[in-house]
């Protein structure tokens, strides 16, 4: 495993993924360390996806859904938030900083918001250092 | 904004799990999700006329893609999405015997449909391709050296997901009925029914209040809407396509778009009918004021019928318009109603002294002309500062402080007219029959107000009328035609498309915990005759919330199985070579 920073972002197709597309169209750059995984709704995410991303060497993971009250699938973003909160508890139980995982809400027309989220997660990793799990992963 | 979350529980949950339906044959395809079919993957990399290739070194990306184990064929193209590009891909799929493919280029948000059609044309299942977004999410936002490295990772992770794709079910289901069920008694209901029947589709109009009460239905509204209501109703009565069930209500409703079954309670007993779409066209009605109130304090609706009787003798009228933002369920047209009735009063009794007290003069569009007319005829408008008090001793007096002059006024009143409080009494019952959510203020909830107005979470059930939110008459009319056109476009379609990226239950893993039934926004999961959860592919919208929440991991979803997402995430963390 290299010592490059890698952040996994599970992005809902309707909000965050579209926001990232719009950021692209508007040429708002952000760190290439973020790897976007498209999901139909943030509610598709299970705590397993977050934990396995860390196991596979992610330094941070975020889930981004639609704005609260504006989920394309009514309340998928609330379910996602619960999963993220659960993952935070599990991670801190095994000594990984809970700040490495976060839930965000983005609307598809908020082009500036996606780069902002990436910036936020990158600065968290800058502060915390690369994931301690990286040392044990080959 | 207060989010409105409607989760099923209690009786509603029980009613959903106690009806048994047979299991759908052949719905166990997702069981072996991690299976690698060993298909040959083709990767088509787009230069996008330089938009990608200016930043990304596509040749080096292609070389990396070719080095991947799962990839059998790589091609760099100018515009894979163009007609020529698509023909080229089609040829390559056939010639190189590709089982699935990756397009590296634009966002799937814009180009997924094009390549889905291409996959179908090539004789593959429509879901056997993936798009790697190396344009919007790579070339446009990163500097060249980083963009090339990232494009490699993106293609690698997409290919690793593509390798695990499973053919999704795509079905074309014929409509069993092309009739629309319209439920409601007011203006919205008759207008929606007439729009549908005018376009040649049969209508069953279920009218809970009974059309004989038509006068009452709209006493609140201005005169012309009553006329429109009567005229439309007469037309419907003489239309052979329209069947009216007066004084009836829907007690059961189930099925799919194009194939609904409704059990209707009519005065002559129960009747089973079939329909292809349903329109809920309820209008919220003004609530009755409390019995023990002062008889000189009435609502706009009551004042409307008073004006209708043309025996108004009161000289001093004070109207108090409640703010639209108040907690109570109020109409959007409070101010409009007050101004309209003040004008009608002035016509009947020019000497009447009318005062309208309201903090927000919300006169929408051309209603502003009425506002001006009322001012010209001497109607007094006061913007209150603080509370408006009413003194009941002796003659009625309204105490108010005028916000612009700070003068404390005491207005004599023969009659105080307040805004109507609108409520839709049966909302909860109707919502549970039609399986649509209601919000905290007791209104039906449209699923997508901006993109698909009039639609609900229950596909094939459409909404109009003020029971879907406070509306002016003009908006009710617009809402009725919106719902009618949505219903007609469904009824006119040759077949209903179902399937795609839907969720599926593995009955062997299902522990029947009911979590999927509780959480699904669309009531797609049900318990089948084998006592296992099953997801109805016609109802499933492919959000995947049940997949995430299922504690037994019995539910998977085409296009987004756990195995596919794990593999995509893992490859995006490890991939990219050196």
Description:
The complex is a heterodimer of chains A (138) and B (578). Chain A contains four helices and four strands; from the N terminus they run βαβαβαβα. The model of chain A has no long low-confidence stretch (mean pLDDT 93). Chain A has 138 residues and is an alpha/beta fold. Chain B has four domains: 10-30 and 498-563, Alpha-Beta Plaits (2-Layer Sandwich); 37-163, Lumazine/riboflavin synthase (Rossmann fold, 3-Layer(aba) Sandwich); 180-284 and 424-491, FAD/NAD(P)-binding domain, CATH 3.50.50; 297-422, FAD/NAD(P)-binding domain (3-Layer(bba) Sandwich). In chain B, the strands form nine sheets. A five-stranded parallel beta sheet of chain B has the order 8-7-6-12-23, with helices on one face. In chain B, strands 14-21-15-16-17 form a five-stranded parallel beta sheet. In chain B, helix 2 (58-66) links the parallel strand 1 and strand 2. In chain B, helix 10 (300-309) runs parallel beside helix 11. Mean pLDDT of chain B is 86; it is low at 31-36 and 212-222. Chains A and B meet through helix 1, strand 2, helix 2 and helix 3 of A and helix 4, helix 5, helix 6, helix 16 and helix 17 of B.
């Amino acid at each position: 495993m290299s010592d490059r920073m890698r952040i996994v972002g599970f992005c809902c197709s309707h909000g965050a993924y579209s926001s990232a597309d719009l950021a692209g169209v508007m040429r708002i750059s952000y760190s290439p360390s973020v790897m976007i995984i498209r999901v139909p709704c943030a509610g598709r995410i299970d705590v397993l996806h977050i934990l396995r991303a860390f196991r596979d060497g992610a330094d941070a993971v975020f889930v981004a859904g639609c704005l609260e009250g504006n989920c394309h699938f009514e309340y998928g973003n609330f379910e996602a938030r619960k999963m993220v909160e659960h993952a935070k508890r599990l991670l801190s139980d095994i000594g990984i900083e809970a700040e490495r995982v976060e839930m965000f809400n983005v609307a598809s027309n908020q082009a500036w918001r996606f780069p902002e989220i990436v910036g936020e997660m990158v600065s968290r990793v800058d502060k915390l250092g690369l994931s301690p799990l990286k040392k044990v992963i080959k | 904004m207060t989010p409105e979350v409607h989760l099923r529980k209690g009786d509603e949950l029980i009613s959903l799990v106690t009806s048994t339906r047979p299991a759908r044959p052949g719905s166990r395809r997702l069981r072996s999700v991690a299976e690698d079919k060993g298909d040959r993957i083709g990767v088509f990399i787009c230069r996008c006329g330089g938009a990608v290739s200016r930043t990304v070194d596509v040749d080096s990306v292609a070389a990396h893609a070719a080095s991947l184990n799962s990839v059998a064929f790589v091609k760099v193209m100018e515009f894979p999405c163009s007609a020529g590009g698509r023909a080229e891909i089609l040829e390559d799929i056939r010639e190189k015997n590709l089982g699935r493919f990756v397009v590296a280029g634009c966002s799937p948000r814009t180009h997924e449909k094009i390549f889905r059609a291409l996959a179908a044309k090539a004789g593959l299942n429509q879901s056997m391709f993936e798009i790697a977004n190396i344009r919007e999410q790579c070339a446009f936002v990163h500097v060249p050296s980083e963009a090339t490295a990232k494009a490699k990772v993106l293609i690698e992770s997409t290919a690793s997901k593509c390798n695990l794709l499973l053919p999704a079910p795509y079905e074309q289901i014929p409509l069993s009925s092309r009739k629309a069920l319209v439920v409601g008694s007011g203006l919205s209901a008759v207008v929606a029914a007439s729009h549908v029947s005018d376009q040649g589709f049969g209508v069953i109009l279920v009218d809970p209040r009974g059309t004989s009460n038509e006068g009452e239905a709209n006493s609140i509204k201005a005169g012309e809407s009553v006329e429109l209501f009567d005229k439309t109703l007469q037309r419907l009565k003489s239309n052979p396509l329209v069947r009216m069930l007066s004084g009836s209500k829907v007690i059961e409703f189930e099925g799919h778009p194009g194939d609904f079954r409704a059990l209707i309670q009519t005065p002559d007993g129960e009747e089973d009918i079939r329909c292809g779409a349903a329109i809920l066209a309820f209008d919220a009605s003004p609530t009755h004021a409390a019995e023990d109130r002062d008889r000189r304090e009435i609502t706009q609706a009551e004042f409307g019928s008073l004006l209708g009787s043309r025996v108004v003798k009161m000289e001093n009228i004070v109207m108090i318009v409640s703010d639209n933002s108040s907690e109570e369920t109020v109409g959007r047209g409070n101010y409009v109603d007050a101004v309209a009735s003040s004008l009608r009063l002035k016509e009947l009794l020019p000497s009447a002294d009318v005062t309208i007290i309201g903090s927000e003069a919300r006169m929408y569009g051309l209603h502003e002309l009425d506002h001006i007319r009322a001012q010209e005829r001497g109607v007094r408008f006061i913007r209150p500062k603080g509370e408006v008090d009413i003194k009941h001793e002796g003659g009625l007096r309204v105490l108010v402080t005028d916000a612009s002059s700070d003068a404390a006024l005491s207005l004599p009143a023969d009659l105080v007219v307040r805004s109507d409080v609108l409520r839709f009494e049966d909302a909860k019952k109707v919502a549970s029959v039609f399986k649509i959510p209601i919000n905290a203020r007791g209104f039906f909830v449209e699923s997508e107000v901006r993109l698909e107005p009039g639609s609900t979470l229950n596909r094939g059930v459409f909404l109009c009328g003020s029971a879907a939110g406070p509306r002016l008459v003009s908006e009710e009319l617009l809402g009725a035609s919106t719902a009618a056109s949505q219903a007609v476009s469904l009824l006119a379609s040759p077949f209903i498309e179902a399937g795609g990226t839907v969720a599926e239950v593995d009955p062997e893993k299902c522990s029947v915990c009911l979590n999927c039934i509780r959480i699904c926004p669309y009531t797609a999961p049900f318990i089948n005759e084998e006592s296992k959860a099953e997801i109805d592919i016609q109802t499933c919208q492919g959000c995947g919330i049940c997949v995430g929440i299922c504690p037994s991991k019995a539910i998977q979803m085409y296009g987004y199985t756990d195995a596919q997402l794990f593999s995509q995430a893992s490859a995006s963390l490890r991939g990219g070579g050196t």
